[in-house]
Amino acid sequence: MAQINSSPEVLIITSHEAKEFAYSPYSKFRVGAALLTHDGTVFTGCNVENACLTLGICAERVAISKAVSAGHREFKAIAIASDMEDNFISPCGGCRQFMREFGLQWEVYLSKPDGSFIKMTVKDLLPESFGPEDLLKNSH
Asked: What is the pTM of this model?
């Protein structure tokens, strides 16, 4: 957890730095994430695999869980990094739903190792999604 300049470029660099800590002995697919809160705090995460494959956790969920455990519930942006040079990294479906839990309008930067990126929102990644407000609706 640190406070940094909140430009997309700095957030992307931070996500690539987080990727270096990935524990991915099975897939060899390293992922890093840098999550920016509204007060300028950045939480990083990396993927952590497990021999029992279903117990692994993605970088995005690590960063969000760290932020939530420190009392943050609203986010401004997340940058995601991998070693893929030909494609922008994109969050898995589980991470998209996990991100959606905390709103639809925050920014998501999908990056490549050269620093190039695509800017999206959580809503762009998961349109017509199910969220906390849906549990509050009365069904008839």
From this structure: 0.92
95 is in an annotated binding site: yes
Identify whether 85 is a catalytic site residue. Answer: no
As for how many domains the chain has, the answer is: 1
Lowest-confidence segment of 2-6, 17-21, 43-47 by average pLDDT: 2-6
Among candidate residues 17, 60, 107, 128, the one labeled active-site is: 60
Alpha-carbon gap, residue 84 to 140, rounded angstroms? 48
Is 46 one of the annotated binding-site residues?
no
Is residue 74 in a domain?
A: yes
Whether residue 3 is contained in a domain is answered as: no
pLDDT in the model for residue 136: 84
Look up the domain containing 97 and give its range.
Answer: 8-136
Question: For the segment 50-97, what is each residue's pLDDT rounded down to a tens digit?
Answer: 999 899 999 999 999 999 999 999 999 999 999 999 999 999 999 999
